[in-house]
Description:
Blueprint: E1 10-14, E2 17-25, E3 32-43, E4 49-52, H1 60-73, H2 77-82, H3 88-92
Antiparallel strand pairs: 1-2, 2-3, 3-4
Amino acid sequence: xxxxxxxxxxxxxxxxxxxxxxxxxxxxxxxxxxxxxxxxxxxxxxxxxxxxxxxxxxxxxxxxxxxxxxxxxxxxxxxxxxxxxxxxxxxxxxxxxxxxxxxxxxxx
Length: 108
């Protein structure tokens, strides 16, 4: 039987920093929650692309912008309904969506 690999429901990239949103199901009650992963890509001395979880001062703005975007956009009823792990109680929860034009001036 083929193994299914868990994938993020959404990923964002800004510069060399990427943020991913992962759905998770609580094994105790089946409720849905999200985890977030930030990683930076760079070329090592051999010219190969590698990822790291360490950041320098110049990466902080990218991390902040990506975190804000995820906070405002991804924890929404649309994403909850997309996930097969959503429980009926959480599918009924619908927070106020962000304004459509709230990111018109974002640098990405």
